[in-house]
Q: What sequence folds into this?
C-alpha cells in the first residue's frame, strides 16, 4: 500500500475546516427529511493536505517529466494562465447574472470566438463544447441538421478513415448515423479511390483528422474535400492535431465545413489528470445558423466613447445547447491568455517547433525503430515497437521501460492500423537537451530489448508500483471503498 | 536539428501543405509579455460584477458556497494539474486513487453502488442517463418522461443529445408545480425512464416516496438529478429506489467561474454498471501483490467499441472531481451537513421575512433547502436593477424566462456565504419595492 485511502485515515469527530456559527434564528427540520447516515471521512486539515500531496507524488505530469503522449499535445501549461483564471472578476461571476453586469466575461469570449475563427479560417465559432469529443458531437449534429433542413432526408452515412480516433465512430453512432470505414493508402493518406466509390447521396459527410493520427498531412486533402462536397456531403475536421498547423494552414481554407479545437491540447490549458477540456467548434458560412447556442454577439457599436456591448444570442436553426451555461469558461480564459501572450507569430512558431521537434526525434530513431510510413511528419509520428529478432518484446514493454528513464510513455496500440504502435508527440516546449535524452533512452531500450529483454518485460522498476493486473480489476469490479448497497 | 533531419529549412517540413494556402496572415493582436497579458485580463475582469464585490442571491444551478483554501492549493500541484488520463497506471496512482475516492464519496452521498469518474456537467450527465436508458432497452422503448422542474438547461441538453435517436420526450409542458405522482402517470410500457430533480429547479424537495414502485411497475427506470451538497442532509435517492442518480457537482467547492468548468456526477446500480458511460477506476494489485488502481471496464468505451459505443466521452472533468474529493474530505460527514443546515436556516430566515413584505409572497408548498420562489409585485428585471444599482445586491433568477406561468416570480438562493446582514439588506431593499 502506497498511501492509505482517505477513509482509512478517518477518525470520529475530526473535521478539516471550521464553519461560521449560525447567525439567524434556526428553523427546525421536519421529520423524515434528513438522512440518518452519511459515510464521508472525518479527517483533520493537515491529514488532508498530506494525503493529497502524497497522492500527487505518485503521478507523472508535464511539470515533472517529458510526456510524449501522441495525439494529446502535452505541452507546458503556463502558470500565468492559472492566475488569470482565478482573478475574482472572472472566477466569482455567476453565469446567470444580467449580461450587462458581465461584459468582461462576454468580451473575452467574443474575442476568443473571433480569434479561433481566424486561426481556423471559419465564419463562426461556438465555445460551448466541453471537450473534443463533445465538439465532435456538436459538429456531427450540425451536419445532420443541415441536410434535414434542406429536406435531404436520405443521408444516413458517415465516412470515417480507419486511422481515426475511436471518438469519431462513437460520435456518429450517438447521432444515429451509420459508420462506413475508409481504408488508408500505402503512404498513410485516406484511400482516395475508395473514398470516391463510397461518396453518394446517402452520405452525411466525412470525419477526417488532418494531420492524421499517424502524424501525416493528407497529401490529397483538397481532392478528398472536393470528392465529399461533390456528392453533397460535408467535411468534419477533428482538430486534435491542430498543434502542427496553427498559422501554417487554415482548415477552413482547405474546404472543411466544421472543425473542433482542443483548447487543452493546442492552446496549452492543463489536462488536469483527465479534464476539464474545452472543444470549441468552428464552422463555414453554411453551418453558422446551426451552431449551438447561445453565442456571444457584439450587439451595437456605441461610438468611440463607449466600449463595445456584448450579449448572448442563439442562432436561428441552432441544434440546441450542448451543456449548461456557456462553456468551460475557466478553460477559455486560459486559452485567451495563451493566444494573447503568443500573438500570431508566436503561435505559428510554436507549430513550427512542434513539427521540428517531432521530425528531429523521427530522424534520430528511424534506424532503430521501424517507421511504417517513412515521410516527413507533422507534430507526431508512429513507430512499431517490435523487432523480429527480439521475440516477445512488445510496444507495451518499451512504453513501461521509458518510465525507468524518467519519461512518460507515448500513446501505444493506437492508431489501430499500425502493428504494435508507439505514437510519439514531443511538442514545441521540450528543449533539444531533453529530446536528446529521450532519444538516448529509446535507443538504449532498443538495445536492451535484444540483450536483456526481461528488463523490459518487468518494467517499470522505478515507478511506485509494478505492472497492475487489469484483468483482475475488471473481474472483481471493486469500484468504491465502502459497501453501500442501499440500492440493492 | 534541421541538419539531422536533412531539411534545408523549416518550410521544407510543411511542403505537403498546398503552397498557395501556406502561412496565412492571422489577424490576431501582437504578442504580449506575461506582465502585459495579466494586465489585459485584469482589465476584462474589472468589467464584471461578481460575488466578491456584491452580495449574491442567485443560484439556479450554480451556487456560491465557501471553499476551504486547501482545495485550490492542492489541485494546483503540478503532478495533478499537468497529468492526463491515467493510461499508464504505474505512474498515475495519484490520479487513480483520487478518482476511486471520488467514486466512493459519490456512492456515499447518493446511496448507489457504483459511480464514474465524471461527466462535463450535470446537464450532460442527465443526457447520458437518457442514452444509457436507451441502451438498456436496446431501442425497444421510445419514450422519456422529464419533469418540468429539471434544470431548463439540462432538459435542453437532453433534446440536443438525443435528436438523432428518435425518442419522444414528454412531461416538460406540465405546470411547474406538478407532483411527481402526476409524472408517474405518464410512464407506460413504452417508457425508458422518468427523470426528476431533487431538490428541483424551484428549490422544492419533492416527496419521492413510492415513485420508484410506480415507475418500476411499468418496467422503466427512475433517474434522480440531485444537488450533492443537499445530499449532505437529505435522504439519499437510493432510499427511494432510484436506478440512476446524477447531477451537478459544482456546489462541492468549485468556483462559479461564469458557468464552468463544473462537474457532472453519475451513479447507478451495480447491475447496470456495464451500460454506464464514462471513465471508471477499479481496485486491483500489482505483480508484488500491492494494492493499486486502474481504469477498468474499458470494453464499454469508444476507443475499444468505436461505432458500437453509445457514448464518446473520454476527457471529462478530472481536476474538478479532484477538487470535489478534497472538498468532501475537508468538510467530512459533519461539515457537509453543517453547510447544508446553514443553508436551511438562512434561507428560511430570508423567506420568512420576505414573505411578510406587502406584495411579496413565498411560493413553497414543499420543504426547501437553499432556494425558494417569490411572487413579486413587479417585473423581476426591474427589481434586480434596483437591487444591483442601488444596493449592490445581485438578485434572484427570473423564472418567467422558462415558465410562462411564473411571470414576475423570482428564484432566490441563500447559502452559508450569505450573512444575516446581507439578508437583512436584501429584505430592506425589497421592502422599498412593495
A:
Amino acid at each position: 500500500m502506497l498511501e492509505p485511502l482517505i477513509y482509512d485515515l478517518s477518525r470520529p469527530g475530526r473535521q478539516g475546516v471550521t464553519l461560521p456559527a449560525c447567525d439567524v434564528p434556526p428553523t427546525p427540520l421536519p421529520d423524515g427529511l434528513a438522512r440518518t447516515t452519511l459515510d464521508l471521512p472525518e479527517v483533520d486539515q493537515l491529514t488532508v493536505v498530506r494525503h493529497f500531496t502524497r497522492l500527487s507524488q505518485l503521478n507523472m505530469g508535464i511539470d515533472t517529466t517529458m510526456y510524449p503522449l501522441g495525439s494529446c499535445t502535452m505541452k507546458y501549461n503556463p502558470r500565468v494562465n492559472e492566475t488569470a483564471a482565478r482573478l475574482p472578476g472572472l472566477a466569482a461571476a455567476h453565469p446567470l447574472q444580467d449580461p450587462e453586469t458581465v461584459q468582461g466575461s462576454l468580451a473575452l469570449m467574443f474575442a476568443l470566438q473571433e480569434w479561433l475563427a481566424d486561426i481556423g479560417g471559419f465564419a463562426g465559432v461556438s465555445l460551448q463544447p466541453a471537450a473534443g469529443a463533445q465538439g465532435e458531437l456538436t459538429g456531427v449534429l450540425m451536419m445532420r441538421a443541415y441536410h434535414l433542413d434542406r429536406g435531404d432526408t436520405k443521408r444516413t452515412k458517415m465516412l470515417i478513415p480507419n486511422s481515426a480516433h475511436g471518438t469519431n465512430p462513437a460520435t456518429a453512432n450517438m447521432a444515429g448515423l451509420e459508420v462506413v470505414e475508409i481504408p488508408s493508402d500505402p503512404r498513410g493518406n485516406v484511400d482516395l479511390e475508395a473514398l470516391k466509390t463510397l461518396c453518394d447521396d446517402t452520405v452525411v459527410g466525412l470525419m477526417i483528422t488532418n494531420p492524421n493520427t499517424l502524424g501525416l498531412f493528407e497529401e490529397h486533402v483538397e481532392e478528398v474535400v472536393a470528392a465529399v462536397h461533390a456528392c453533397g456531403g460535408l467535411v468534419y475536421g477533428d482538430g486534435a492535431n491542430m498543434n502542427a498547423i496553427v498559422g501554417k494552414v487554415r482548415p477552413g481554407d482547405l474546404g472543411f465545413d466544421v472543425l473542433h479545437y482542443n483548447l487543452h491540447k493546442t492552446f496549452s490549458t492543463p489536462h488536469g489528470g483527465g479534464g476539464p477540456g474545452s472543444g470549441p467548434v468552428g464552422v463555414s458560412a453554411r453551418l453558422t445558423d446551426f451552431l449551438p447556442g447561445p453565442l456571444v454577439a457584439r450587439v451595437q457599436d456605441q461610438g468611440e466613447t463607449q466600449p463595445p456591448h456584448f450579449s448572448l444570442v442563439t442562432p436561428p436553426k441552432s441544434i440546441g445547447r450542448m451543456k449548461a451555461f456557456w462553456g468551460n469558461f475557466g478553460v477559455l480564459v486560459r486559452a485567451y491568455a495563451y493566444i494573447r501572450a503568443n500573438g500570431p507569430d508566436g503561435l505559428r512558431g510554436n507549430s513550427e517547433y512542434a513539427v521540428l521537434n517531432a521530425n528531429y526525434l523521427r530522424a534520430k530513431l528511424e534506424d532503430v525503430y521501424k517507421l511504417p510510413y517513412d515521410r516527413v511528419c507533422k507534430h507526431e509520428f508512429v513507430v512499431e515497437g517490435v523487432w523480429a529478432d527480439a521475440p516477445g518484446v512488445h510496444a507495451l514493454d518499451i512504453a513501461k521501460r521509458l518510465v525507468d528513464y524518467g519519461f512518460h510513455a507515448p500513446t501505444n496500440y493506437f492508431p489501430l492500423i499500425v502493428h504494435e504502435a508507439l505514437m510519439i508527440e514531443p511538442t514545441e516546449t521540450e528543449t533539444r537537451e531533453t529530446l536528446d535524452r529521450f532519444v538516448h533512452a529509446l535507443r538504449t531500450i532498443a538495445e536492451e530489448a535484444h540483450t536483456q529483454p526481461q528488463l523490459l518485460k518487468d518494467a517499470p522498476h522505478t515507478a511506485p508500483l509494478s505492472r497492475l493486473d487489469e484483468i483482475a480489476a475488471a473481474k472483481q469490479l471493486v469500484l468504491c471503498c465502502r459497501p453501500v448497497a442501499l440500492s440493492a | 536539428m534541421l541538419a539531422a533531419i536533412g531539411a534545408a529549412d523549416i518550410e521544407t517540413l510543411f511542403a505537403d501543405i498546398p503552397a498557395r494556402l501556406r502561412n496565412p496572415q492571422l489577424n490576431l493582436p501582437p504578442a504580449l509579455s506575461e506582465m502585459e497579458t495579466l494586465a489585459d485580463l485584469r482589465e476584462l475582469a474589472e468589467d464584471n460584477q461578481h460575488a466578491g464585490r456584491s452580495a449574491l442571491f442567485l443560484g439556479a444551478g450554480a451556487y456560491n458556497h465557501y471553499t476551504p483554501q486547501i482545495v485550490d492549493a492542492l489541485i494546483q500541484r503540478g503532478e495533478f494539474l499537468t497529468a492526463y488520463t491515467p493510461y499508464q497506471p504505474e505512474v498515475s496512482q495519484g490520479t487513480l486513487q483520487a478518482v476511486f475516492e471520488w467514486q466512493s464519496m459519490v456512492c456515499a452521498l447518493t446511496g448507489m453502488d457504483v459511480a464514474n469518474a465524471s461527466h462535463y456537467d450535470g446537464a450532460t450527465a442527465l443526457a447520458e442517463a437518457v442514452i444509457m436508458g436507451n441502451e438498456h432497452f436496446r431501442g425497444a422503448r421510445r419514450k422519456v418522461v422529464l419533469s418540468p422542474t429539471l434544470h431548463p438547461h439540462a432538459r435542453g441538453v437532453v433534446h440536443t443529445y438525443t435528436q438523432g435517436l428518435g425518442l419522444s420526450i414528454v412531461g416538460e409542458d406540465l405546470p411547474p408545480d406538478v407532483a411527481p405522482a402526476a409524472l408517474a402517470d405518464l410512464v407506460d410500457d413504452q417508457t425508458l425512464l422518468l427523470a426528476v430533480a431533487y431538490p428541483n429547479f424551484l428549490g422544492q424537495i419533492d416527496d419521492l416516496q413510492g415513485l420508484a414502485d410506480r415507475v418500476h411497475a411499468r418496467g422503466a427506470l427512475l433517474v434522480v438529478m440531485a444537488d450533492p451538497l443537499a445530499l449532505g442532509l437529505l435522504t439519499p435517492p437510493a432510499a427511494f429506489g432510484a436506478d440512476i442518480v446524477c447531477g451537478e457537482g459544482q456546489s462541492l467547492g468549485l468556483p462559479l467561474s461564469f458557468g464552468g468548468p463544473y462537474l457532472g456526477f453519475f451513479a447507478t446500480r451495480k447491475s447496470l454498471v456495464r451500460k454506464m458511460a464514462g471513465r471508471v477506476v477499479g481496485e486491483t494489485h500489482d505483480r508484488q501483490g500491492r494494492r493499486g488502481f486502474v481504469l477498468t471496464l474499458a470494453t464499454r468505451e469508444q476507443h475499444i467499441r468505436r461505432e458500437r459505443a453509445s457514448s464518446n466521452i473520454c476527457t471529462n472533468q478530472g481536476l474538478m472531481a479532484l477538487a470535489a474529493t478534497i472538498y468532501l474530505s475537508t468538510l467530512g460527514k459533519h461539515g457537509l451537513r453543517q453547510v447544508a443546515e446553514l443553508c436551511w436556516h438562512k434561507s428560511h430566515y430570508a423567506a420568512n421575512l420576505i414573505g411578510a413584505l406587502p406584495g411579496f409572497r413565498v411560493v413553497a408548498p414543499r420543504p426547501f433547502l437553499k432556494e425558494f420562489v417569490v411572487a413579486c409585485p413587479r417585473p423581476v428585471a426591474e427589481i434586480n436593477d434596483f437591487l444591483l444599482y442601488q444596493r449592490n445586491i445581485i438578485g434572484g433568477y427570473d423564472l418567467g424566462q422558462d415558465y410562462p406561468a411564473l411571470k414576475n416570480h423570482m428564484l432566490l438562493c441563500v447559502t452559508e456565504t450569505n450573512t444575516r446582514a446581507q439578508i437583512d439588506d436584501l429584505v430592506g431593499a425589497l421592502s422599498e419595492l412593495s
